[in-house]
Amino acid sequence: MPRIAVVGGGIAGAMLAWRLCEVIRGTAVHLFTGEPYRRADASAASGGLTRAFEPDAALCLEAADSLAELQSSPELRKWASYRETGSVYLLPGLEPGTAGLVDLVRSRIPGSISIITAGELGSRGTFRGMPKGSVAVVEKRAGYVSPNALRDRLLVELARAGAFVTDGQVDAITREGEVRPTDGNPMRFDAVVVAAGAWTQDLLARTDLADAGLRTKVIQYVLGPFAGTGPGAFVDETSGLYGRVYAEGRLLLGLPTDRWDITPGDAAPDPVLTTRILDVAETRIGYRPPGRKVKAVTAVECYHPTGGLSLRPLAKGVYTFTGGSGGAGKTVLAASRTAARSLVRSLR
After folding, report:
1. What DSSP state is assigned to residue 140?
2. Which domain holds residue 336?
């Protein structure tokens, strides 16, 4: 039985380790969580938006399969603290392939998805000032999860399955499949998967392994007071704004950043971006918190040029499972299943 190490205890690493336990004996799986660093990672800060539609066909397939599995599993929904709110994805216009992607989602989650015009969306009273020609992909059965809650439960389930879960930092890995913990003796494995998110580059830099183009980027959103039902979960490609009701009495809103190559832990909130988020939110959904007082939240995420959360080889028996280009929580259920099966097949 091959021995496999997963380095990184965020949602991607924990889910991959759990998937591996579904196809091989749990005692062959060893997860290094990276404590205490994972408590400040993107899984802890993630907004957790979960929907089936994505403008990219490959990502749409994985997101639809992931949401379909979540919808069909009361256990997973409970572990992930899933809340169904519906979602709106605003597009500048109807692209040639959009209808096909909507049909794909319908085949996985019947009765959930539809396309409406910006005028129809505006008549519902939440969104305003949408550009002419824009359309909205509306999903009834989308919502959000807590990636932090899900990975914490997965760690419990991994221990029950007999997997080895080791807290503490890993100093390095080698081409020969050796993992060198900061506190502990080196261990040799048949395969090592680095799923350390924003820490992946730093870990690989301490070895002779290339990072395959991985880069870090800051994600930032604000949490502000809110009364009412809220806009639900949404992404607005015409303005960049995204958001959802975060918890009772609070609204989460964000915009993409252009802060690349930031060291994890060094991502202080950008006050200029906070102001811009509030300005766009006021224009698009009429949101203006009292005194414009909000809490800014930041984390550092890992990105790959090709996007998508997938298993990427670095050397024989050494892989990364990261670089989802943000929002990997939408695809992690399907992506981790595919990665686990592919990895086990390669070792047989």
Report:
1. S
2. 4-45+147-211+309-347
Q: How many domains does the chain have?
A: 2
CATH of residue 198: 3.50.50.60
Task: Say what the pTM is.
Answer: 0.91
Print burial letters for 328-342: b (CB count within 10 Å at least 16), e (below 16). Answer: bbbbbbbbbbbbbee
Task: Show the beta-strand stretches assigned E in 39-183.
Answer: 49-50, 83-84, 87-91, 113-117, 135-139, 143-144, 164-166, 170-173, 178-181
On whether both 153 and 296 belong to a single domain, the answer is no
244-285 tens-digit pLDDT: 888 778 899 999 999 999 988 888 999 999 999 999 999 999
Claim to verify: residue 221 and residue 298 sit in the same structural domain:
yes
pLDDT in tens, 164-202: 999 988 999 999 999 999 988 999 999 999 999 888 988
Q: How far apart are CA 245 and CA 262, in angstroms?
A: 28
Q: What is the pLDDT of residues 225-249, one digit of tens each?
A: 987 766 778 999 999 999 888 877 8
For residues 132 and 225, membership in a common domain is answered with yes
